[in-house]
Amino acid sequence: MGAPNIGDRERFSARLDAAFARGWLSNDGPLAKEFERRVAQAAGTRYAVATCNATSALQLAIRAADLTGEIIVPSLTFAATAHVVSWLGLTPVFCDVDPLTGQIDPDHARTLIGPRTSAILAVHLWGRTAPAERLEAVARRHGLALFFDASHAFACTRGGRPVGGFGDAEIFSFHSTKFVNAFEGGALVTNDESLARRVQSIRNFGITAEDEVSHVGINAKMNEASAAMGLTSLDSIDRFVARNLDNYRRYRAGLAGVPGIRLIPFDEGERHNYQYVVIEVDPRRAGISRDTLRHLLHQENVLARRYFHPGCHRMAPYADRPPLPATEHLSERVLALPTGMSVTRTQVAKICEIIRVVVVNSQAIAERVPMEVGAR
Question: How far apart are CA 164 and CA 48, in angstroms?
Answer without folding.
Answer: 9
